[in-house]
């Protein structure tokens, strides 16, 4: 097609009103900066007085500012898509039932939709209450009641890749154990040290001298594998992100048929593991890394070139990039988006069947690995370790 013909064709499409149009957005965020969830035994900053008397895992003022700033970025990103004033028919927000994700969502949504005109209910306040709906961990994260997932994760933590990683960093583990008071045998146990050092560094608390040999590297790289192992296999991706992605696909299919059928922007406030497992499910988490506070993923549905396409963008700090979903083009046709995720997508009934839907977590004990080799990681050890960070 010649240049003049191409130009005429593009102009003709514009006249017909079929130029590129943003139809819907799903945004997933990690909460803002928090206090450490736990401290390694020799950490001298374990007293609450160092953290403004906040409890463990509590959102800091900096965390609130991070999400306020992220909301401002989102507003700039979608200046003609998001309405200037909040209305429930255009925007829907969800959060996990954890204080720091609730508060992060509130900070973010406030910067998106400050009260104006008739929405102002107090002359000295431009804040307005906007509903943040709870979403179950089973639906959004994937493993709180899924006994099979713990079994699969145990297997992943003992597979050849895990053994190779642990062999590579065995001397690092010994060094950290010497000074931290921990007994690290696997990369899944490194998160406490990484998390403590990262947050202390962020707030200006000096790190111990011994940390210089292992932080930021190789601890940061080791911690990346901690997040990768949540969704290493197809089956794990199904159980940890399949229900959520199935919901996204169904939402996009509905919006493709009738853009007025429901809200055009959905917001989910969650955790670093949400971001990591989502990117890993998209085939875009290599090399693995620990997602920063207030990192986010935007999943967009567009109508362009006579078809509906999906575009995905990740933002971690100031780094914003578009990602390819499992090898699909950057503007991935919606039907192809569904196809490349087909092995992962799962509905609630299938999820319950594959998980056995065991709500009594004591039943997990039957999945303990019978192995006399104490270097192996057992399901019970994993069950006792909080991964909700």
Set down the secondary structure blueprint:
Elements: H1 3-16, E1 21-30, H2 61-77, E2 91-95, H3 99-112, E3 132-134, H4 137-140, H5 147-157, H6 160-168, H7 170-180, H8 191-203, H9 219-228, H10 234-257, E4 265-270, H11 272-281, E5 296-304, E6 307-316, E7 319-323, E8 332-333, H12 334-340, H13 348-355, H14 379-383
Parallel strand pairs: 1-4, 2-3, 2-4
Antiparallel strand pairs: 1-5, 5-6, 6-7, 6-8
Helix pairs in contact: 2-3, 10-11, 10-13
Describe the structure.
The protein has 389 residues and is α/β, with parallel strands linked by helices. It is built from 14 helices and eight strands. Strands 1, 2, 3, 4, 5, 6, 7 and 8 form an eight-stranded mixed beta sheet that branches. The protein starts with a helix and ends in a 6-residue tail after the last helix. The model is unreliable at 1-17 and 358-374 (pLDDT under 50).
Main beta-sheet annotation: 8 strands, mixed
Mean pLDDT, to the nearest integer, reads 89
Radius of gyration: 23 Å
| Helix share, percent | 40-55%
SSE arrangement, N to C: HEHEHEHHHHHHHEHEEEEHHH
* Number of helical stretches of at least 4 residues: 14
Per DSSP E runs of 2 or more residues, the count of β-strands stands at 8
Strand content: 5-15%
Specify the structural class: alpha/beta
Distance between the first and last residues' Cα: 53 Å
Low-confidence stretches: 1-17, 358-374
Shape call: globular
Enzyme class: hydrolase
Protein name: acid phosphatase
InterPro entries: Acid_Pase_AS, His_Pase_clade-2, His_PPase_superfam, Histidine_acid_phosphatase
Keywords: Disulfide bond, Glycoprotein, Hydrolase, Signal
């Amino acid at each position: 097609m010649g240049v003049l013909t191409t130009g005429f064709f593009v102009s003709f499409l514009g006249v017909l009103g079929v130029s590129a149009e943003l139809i819907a957005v799903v945004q997933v965020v990690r909460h803002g900066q928090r206090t450490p969830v736990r401290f390694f035994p020799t950490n001298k900053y374990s007293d609450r007085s160092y953290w403004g008397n906040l409890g463990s895992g509590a959102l800091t003022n900096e965390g609130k500012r991070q999400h306020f700033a992220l909301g401002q970025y989102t507003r700039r990103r979608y200046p003609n898509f998001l309405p200037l004033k909040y209305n429930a028919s255009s925007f829907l927000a969800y959060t996990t039932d954890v204080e720091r994700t609730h508060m992060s969502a509130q900070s973010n949504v406030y910067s998106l939709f400050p009260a104006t005109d008739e929405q102002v209910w107090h002359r000295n306040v431009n804040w307005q209450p906007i509903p943040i709906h709870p979403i179950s961990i089973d639906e959004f994260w994937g493993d709180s009641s899924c006994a099979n997932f713990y079994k699969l994760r145990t297997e992943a933590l003992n597979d050849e890749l895990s053994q190779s990683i642990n062999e590579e960093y065995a001397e690092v583990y010994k060094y950290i154990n010497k000074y931290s008071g921990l007994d690290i045998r696997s990369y899944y146990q490194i998160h406490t040290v990484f998390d403590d050092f990262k947050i202390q560094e962020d707030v200006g608390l000096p790190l111990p001298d011994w940390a210089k040999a292992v932080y930021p590297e190789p601890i940061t790289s080791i911690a990346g594998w901690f997040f990768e192992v949540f969704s290493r296999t197809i089956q794990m991706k199904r159980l940890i992100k399949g229900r959520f992605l199935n919901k996204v696909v169904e939402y996009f299919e509905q919006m493709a048929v009738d853009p007025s059928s429901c809200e055009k922007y959905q917001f989910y406030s969650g955790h670093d593991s949400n971001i990591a497992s989502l990117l890993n499910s998209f085939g875009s988490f290599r090399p693995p890394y620990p997602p920063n506070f207030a990192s986010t993923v935007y999943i967009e549905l567009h109508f362009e070139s006579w078809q509906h396409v999906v575009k995905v963008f990740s933002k971690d700090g100031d780094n914003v990039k578009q990602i390819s979903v499992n090898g699909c083009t950057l503007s991935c046709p919606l039907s192809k988006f569904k196809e490349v995720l087909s092995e992962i997508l799962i509905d609630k009934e299938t999820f319950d069947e594959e998980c056995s839907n065991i709500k009594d977590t004591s039943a997990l004990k039957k999945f303990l690995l019978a192995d006399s080799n104490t270097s192996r990681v057992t399901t019970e050890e994993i069950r006792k370790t909080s991964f909700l960070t």
